[in-house]
């Protein structure tokens, strides 16, 4: 009997007094849909800013650099890439040929 009185009272109040929709109802979710997150710009949507393959080939196949030593050739290539605003990060000449290591007595 004790349970039925509050149950009935809650039911009567819910019928008589309109209330807001609950968090998991379709009405609530339709009213509170979040804005979609902005999609980051694709790198393919921007124009190409690096040098073209033809420009890079022209730097590496330049006739005047073919006569130079390997070290001088690397420096010329680095300077030409620097003129384009790029770092020449991948030297083709191994550093071991420049540095002579001597045996260290342990």
Explain how this protein is built:
The protein is mainly alpha-helical and 106 residues long. It is built from five helices and no strands. The longest helix has 14 residues. The chain is rod-shaped and about 105 Å long.
Give descriptors for this structure:
mainly alpha, 0% strand, 106 residues, 5 helices
Structural class: mainly alpha
Percent of residues in helices comes to: 40-55%
Please indicate the percent range of residues in DSSP E strands (runs of 2 or more).
Answer: under 5%
Average pLDDT number: 80
Contiguous low-pLDDT stretches (5 residues minimum) are none
Question: How many strands, what sense, and barrel or not for the largest sheet?
Answer: none
Count of DSSP E strands?
A: 0
The 3D shape can be described as rod-shaped
Give the H and E element order. HHHHH
**SS element count, helices:** 5
* Rg, alpha carbons: 37 Å
Query: How far is it from the N-terminal to the C-terminal residue, by CA?
Result: 96 Å
Summarize the structure.
By secondary structure, this protein is mostly helical. It has 5 helices and no strands.
Topology:
Blueprint: H1 4-16, H2 26-31, H3 53-60, H4 63-66, H5 70-83
């Amino acid at each position: 009997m004790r349970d039925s009185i509050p149950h009935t009272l809650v039911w009567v109040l819910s019928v008589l007094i309109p209330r807001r929709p609950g968090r998991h109802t379709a009405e609530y979710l339709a009213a509170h849909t979040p804005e979609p997150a902005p999609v980051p710009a694709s790198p393919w949507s921007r124009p190409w800013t690096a040098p073209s393959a033809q420009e890079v080939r022209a730097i590496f196949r330049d006739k005047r650099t073919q006569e130079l030593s390997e070290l001088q050739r690397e420096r010329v290539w680095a300077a030409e890439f620097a003129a384009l605003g790029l770092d020449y990060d991948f030297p083709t000449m191994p550093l071991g040929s420049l540095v002579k290591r001597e045996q260290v007595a342990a």
